[in-house]
Every structure is written in structure tokens, then in C-alpha cells.
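Annotated sample (chain length 134).
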Amino acid sequence: DPIMGEAGPLLGAVLSELGIPMPSQDQAVHLVLARYIQWIAEGTVTPRDGLVLVEEVYGTAKLARQTKKYAGDSHGFHHLIGARWSYDDLQERPHEVSFQGKYGEEALAAFDAYVVQLAREWLTSRSGGRDAVS
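Output written by the structure step:
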């Protein structure tokens, strides 16, 4: 696992050769978030697995430092961060916690569809209606 000190110059050289400027840290975080959220929207990963990836970026990039009111609000994905934790409640207490009046597996299926919709809305809001990630 090369560290950025080792991989950074190589990445910079490749990007330069392709005529692509090195993204800032914030741009890089946005690109990774957008890709993972796009995977959720497209069904490339399950909604829950995709949210785990999003949460990892949130933690690794230390986005909590940029929080205004809700976890993830600095990049507009606070609903997705909240949804990540709702899965735990739905699975751990399937007879007590509901979603859209459904319990257990039905609630999880409905919640998956809801998370996909949240992901699509985030992508649309970030791209002005265009594909957010090329």
C-alpha cells in the first residue's frame, strides 16, 4: 500500500501526461463520494454497502470537522449518513422499527428503494441534472 508520498508523484505525472490537473483534497473527496453514491443509484452495490463506503470517506476525510448541523451536511449527503445508521435499527429491531409502515424484510426492501432515491437526488443536485461523475 503506497502512501501518498510515494503514489502522489506518480499520480501527478500520469494526470499531467493526460492533461488533467491534480484535484484538491476537497475535489478528490467529492469525486470519490460521487462515485460511491452513483454506485448506489445504479445498483452497482447494495444501498447498505454503498452507504458503508460513503461513511468510510466521511471518516477518512475527517468531514465531521466541516459539519454545520448534521453529519455530512458539508457535502449535502447528511440524509445518506443518517440512512446508514437507520439500517442498524431496522435490522436489529425488525419487530419494533418500521419504515413506511412496514417491518422486517419488507421495511428493508422499502428502505433500500428510499436510499437509491436519495442517492439519485444527491447526484442530480450536484450536477444540475447531468451525470455527476464522468
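Annotation: The chain has a mean pLDDT of 81.
Annotation: The chain is about 65% helix and 0% strand.
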